[in-house]
Design goal:
By secondary structure, the chain is of the alpha+beta class. Strands 2-1-3-4 form a four-stranded mixed beta sheet, covered by helices on one side. Strands 5-6 form a two-stranded antiparallel sheet. β5 and β6 form a beta hairpin.
Length: about 160
């Protein structure tokens, strides 16, 4: 039985896009009062008794202690109201014309979600993943030519600015 006073977020932990978003929300104050249920086949989360596993994997769901089981845009707005950093946005987004627009855009997102998931999975499995590319991108060097000898040294922004003054 689900405790009526708890808030539970049900998400697909096998989806790289979903995991990124959930990890983003977990960084904010108030997230410790939410139970995050990874309902993917490899996750250890428990599914709400009124929630079909196939439907749960296709849409974002939340069990809100006040409003019950919600999905889609309504679930996002309920989550936002639980996190102080997003509370104002959640309250505004729950108003009727806005919630309908959010649901419309969420349905469009669900159509392109499989493509985005494949792109993220391919990027993560690529030999030069983000972890390998990050140092290469941020290791800035500049070349100095002194008497026809090329020397590389770490890029120093202060020296660069001073040189051009």
């Amino acid at each position: 039985m689900i405790n009526q006073n708890t808030n539970r977020v049900y998400y697909d932990g096998s989806c790289p896009l979903c995991s990124l978003e959930i990890n983003f929300y977990k960084k904010f104050a108030g997230s410790d009062k939410i139970i995050w249920e990874d309902i993917s086949p490899t996750g250890k989360g428990k599914l709400h008794p009124d929630l079909n596993p196939k439907i749960a994997m296709k849409r974002f769901h939340i069990f809100n202690g006040e409003k019950g089981l919600l999905s889609g845009a309504a679930a996002f707005t309920a989550l936002w109201t639980l996190l102080p950093a997003f509370r104002v946005y959640g309250i505004i987004a729950q108003k009727k014309p806005i919630i309908y627009l959010l649901e419309f855009f969420y349905l469009i997102f669900l159509l392109v979600r499989p493509l985005l998931q494949r792109l993220l999975k391919n990027t993560a499995s690529h030999p030069q993943s983000k972890k390998e590319l990050w140092p290469a991108i941020h290791h800035k060097t500049h070349k100095i030519v002194v008497n026809e000898i090329h020397v590389e040294r770490p890029y120093n922004k202060a020296q660069h600015l001073f040189f051009y003054l």
